[in-house]
């Protein structure tokens, strides 16, 4: 049974993230979406539990919840990998601008845990422009989100910004 960890902030999960999950299932038997609890370089809109709940609902809606789980993690990714006894990490790659940071993270993780392997899935062109920050910006100004996020996430964004 091959399991891969898909780590990220997921604030909130987008259809681009779900596409990476779906495509990871063609390579791995199980995916664990690992939600980084408190990204120090970002202020988050949704707290950790909210982000996990939104992902779980979205996974159920697309019918992959039996092979994919979502949970919070804190601290270093490599420590989480060791605790879960998993050596594979998947990340989505969009533009070239993602490359530097992703390359750095993969190298650092491998240095800390030589067994760790990072697999990159190149984003579908439909999601090339898409990221959580953009989605939040659009939702804040009540713009259309169309097919950028799952329906439950769109509802949650509308509620957050209406509050
Ligand atoms: O969605 P993001 O914000 O690009 O995800 C970044 C994330 C959460 C994968 C990365 O910041 C991470 O792994 N954080 C955990 C702390 C850690 O292990 N840092 C060293 C990795 S270089």
Précis, in short:
This protein has six helices and five strands; from the N terminus they run βαβαβαβαβαα. The chain has helices spanning 15-24, 48-61, 77-84, 99-112, 132-140, 151-162, and strands at 3-8, 30-36, 68-73, 88-93, 117-122.
Q: Output the radius of gyration.
A: 15 Å
Q: For this structure, what is the CATH homologous superfamily?
A: HUPs
CATH architectural grouping: 3-Layer(aba) Sandwich
- Give a short account of the largest sheet: 5 strands, parallel
Using the coordinates shown, work out and report the CATH topology. Answer: Rossmann fold
Shape: globular
Total strand segments: 5
Q: Fraction of residues in helices?
A: 40-55%
* CATH class identity: Alpha Beta
Strand order of the largest sheet: 3-2-1-4-5
- Oligomer classification: single chain
Question: What ligands can be seen in this structure?
Answer: 4'-phosphopantetheine
Q: Whole-Å distance between the termini?
A: 44 Å
Query: What is the average of the pLDDT values?
Result: 95
Could you give the order of the helices and strands?
EHEHEHEHEHH
User: How many helical stretches?
Assistant: 6
Q: pLDDT below 50 for ≥5 consecutive residues: which ranges?
A: none
Total domain units: 1
Structural class: alpha/beta
Strand percentage: 15-25%
